[in-house]
Amino acid sequence: DQLKMELQQLLQLLLLLLCVSAEVQHDSFRVIGCSDTDGLDMMTLDGEEVWHADFIHETGVDTLPDFVSHPSFSGLYEQSVGQQQLCKNNLKIIRTGLKDIPDPLDPPTSLLYTANIVELGEKNILVCHVSGFYPAPVNVSWTRNGQKVTEGTSINFPFPNQDNTFTQISRLQFVPQLGDIYSCSVEHLALEEPLTRIWDVEVRVPQPGTGPAVFCGVGLIVGLLGVAVGTFFLIRGRES
Length: 240
Ligand SMILES: *[C@@H]1O[C@H](CO)[C@@H](O)[C@H](O)[C@H]1NC(C)=O
Description:
Blueprint: H1 2-22, E1 28-34, E2 39-45, E3 48-54, E4 59-62, H2 76-97, E5 109-114, E6 124-133, E7 139-144, E8 147-149, E9 153-155, E10 159-160, E11 166-174, E12 181-187, E13 195-200, H3 210-239
Antiparallel strand pairs: 1-2, 2-3, 3-4, 5-6, 6-11, 7-8, 7-12, 9-11, 10-11, 12-13
The structure holds 2-acetamido-2-deoxy-beta-D-glucopyranose (NAG).
2-acetamido-2-deoxy-beta-D-glucopyranose binds at residues 139, 187-189.
């Protein structure tokens, strides 16, 4: 019986291992950083933020969307605070060792696009995707027809990329009206002047589609001809 139980346990373990190895590989990393005035502690999974420490409000922020199950992050913020102390101490030592070599600055690049297909009068979201910059953060400002807009805007926490740069995404909720012009301006330490992208509302009126109809008609005729010829030869073949 002892042997049987052990065998069963072994089998279960093997099955478990098989299941685990059959799973998709995921990519998770955590970034801890600090400066004299700021701190960063963030966990990511497959390129998305999962959790970050908010040192201003002194709490951890679970940023997983509602529809997934949330693991417990209890105690993580407290751990984070300890890590910050360690980081700041290390920073002092490294600075002395490296004789205060300044950090290289990386300027951001930006993209401006809509989240959904543009329909006049239909709610939409403009997305200003800013990436490749160091250090974080950037300041993003929006305009509509040259006027500053703050209502309906939001920006996410700086997302650390694996190459030591950051990504930040700012969004503006808006309703497209013909002729409106929007802009997204990005300020960063490495930029002498703001990086501005312009987006204007233009809706392509779909042309009545003659092309597909003709194509379909010709295709149908050729197809029917093929069937007729095939049938003709089939019958002749039988008769002979
Ligand atoms: C962002 O804006 C704040 C407040 O206006 C300013 O203190 C800071 O220097 C700005 N940061 C950059 C990178 O321009």
